Amino acid sequence: MTQPAPHTRLAALRARFDAIGVDGLLVPRADAFLGEYVPASAERLAWLTGFTGSAGLALVLKDRAFLFIDGRYTTQARQEVDAGLWEFRHLIDQPPASVLKAEAPAARIGYDPWLHPESALDRLAQAGVTLVPLAANPLDAIWTDRPAPPAAPAIPHPIAFAGEEAAAKRAQAAASLGAAGQGAAVLADAHSVAWLLNIRGSDLAHTPLALAVAILDATGAVDLFLDPARADASLRDHLGNAVALHPPGSLRDHLAGLAGRRVRLDPDVTPAWFGQALREAGATPEAGEDPCRLPRARKNAVEQDGARAAHRRDAVALARFLAWFAQAAPGGGLTEMSAAARLLALRAEGAHFVAESFPAISGAGEHGAIIHYRATPATDRAIRPDEAYLIDSGAQYRDGTTDVTRTLWTGPGDPPAELCERYTRVLQGHLALSALRFPEGIAGPHLDALARRPLWLAGLDYDHGTGHGVGSFLAVHEGPAGISRAAKPVPLAPGMVLSNEPGFYLPGAYGIRIENLLLVQPAPSLTGQVKPFLRFETLTLAPYDRRLVALPLLAPAERAQVDAYHARVLAEIGPLLDDGDRAWLAAACAPLA
């Protein structure tokens, strides 16, 4: 069947409003598992609007349409979306509730209860509109060539990488339910299901998930809702007798079996459909944090060692790439896509490599200012001599997940003073965060300003968080902790892995970002210390571009910190390289002049 042209899709969607009794529709960038990345079958927002970013929401009214995006996608959205059809709003500064209150008071706004958590609906309800749950998503009726949902097999995640048996995890999570007097919990976050049961999959391109839902009983037993055809004998043996496998279509019947019981739902990561179904069944849903979320973020000793090993292999690939780039870039001939492909090929040579952890952000010149830019055949451009190039990339290894950003000068000439000054301020914020000691109980939002201070002193800033959590062969963006003013104040704890990535972006000119991953560790005690303190262990091992450092801006302690880091990179990674790449790394890691 022929699809509606992009400019007629809005009209086709609006034509269904009267029949379903609504004045508007919410279209989030989400699937039924509410993860950051979604399969092609759930890319409704991209199909409707053309926007391909990883976070956003559309509000379609009968005569107006709004696209909400955050600061990462301000430039990208305007390049991808027809401004004649869509009005752009900032997701944080101009949230959907405020727009609804101003533009559609008393309207009936439809939503798909599989695609919104209850916490988001509660915020929208403050606008005074009537939110209408829909039995079927009207967009699906006009998306006639919608791809099929993923159906790859789920696979065991070996104890050698997981570090803890699933039975122990189930017992720990179940104990938290018993302590709260709750009989069960709905685990709608597929990352939690993967962690709890030590399973992985390939349903998403960059996150090794088998998209599935589970019900955890307070006894420790689990009902797993996954197509039985996706579970072979090895997976069934791995799951054991305490985990019962059911087809997803039986989920409502199993929820009905919880009638009369108190059931925990995490309102931030559970589709509203579950609460509605449980109430209809006579169960009592209770808001509470997913019992797997915080334990999942606190990596065990095996996962921490795996992260170190994965980052060393990643560092070898990075060093080989950076040495190649330093030689090739000044002469021209590279493109954004060819450079990213080179780095991916080098990573793929490493042990336990599975995939990129996200589509590489390979941005030259003005494209570097697009915070989540993704080069395509239509946008791919040459990496020219004497400009800034930003490469943000990572990998999924079976023992760890990586994410690293470096901003490079292509040469052969010297970079302009303004670029160096701004790069150095970003570097100073990055260094300040990585060197920090802080008391237990401190949360990410408390630390965000430290990375911004050098930029603030010059009247500069960046419109994204400073750091996000990272999973262990799971999501490259993992909650609940983050280093951001918008993050929930979750205290940082030993075993958490977070990114450290301040930046600066000048639209139309260049982008700067420097990113390492940090592992939270107990800090050695000091004489007279009055409480336990924590510190960060840097996992990422790749040199900074010394050509972009404005040495007069660095304090002696900052110079010493860079030199110590570079000495560590050379000592740990140099022996793993061939003679040519090792010589380049030695020069890149030499003490700052």
From TrEMBL:
GO terms assigned for molecular function: metal ion binding; metalloaminopeptidase activity
Pfam families cross-referenced by the UniProt entry: Creatinase_N (PF01321), Creatinase_N_2 (PF16189), Peptidase_M24 (PF00557), Peptidase_M24_C (PF16188)
GO-annotated cellular components: cytoplasm
Protein origin, superkingdom: Bacteria
Sequence ranges assigned to domain Peptidase M24 in this UniProt record: 307-521
CDD domains linked to this entry: APP
Residue span(s) of domain Peptidase M24 C-terminal: 532-592
SUPFAM superfamilies registered for this protein in UniProt: Creatinase/aminopeptidase, Creatinase/prolidase N-terminal domain
Alphabetic keyword roster: Aminopeptidase, Hydrolase, Metal-binding, Protease
Residues annotated as domain Creatinase N-terminal: 9-134
PANTHER family for the chain: XAA-PRO AMINOPEPTIDASE 1 (PTHR43763:SF6)
Family the entry assigns: Belongs to the peptidase M24B family.
Protein name: Xaa-Pro aminopeptidase
Organism, scientific name: Falsiroseomonas stagni DSM 19981
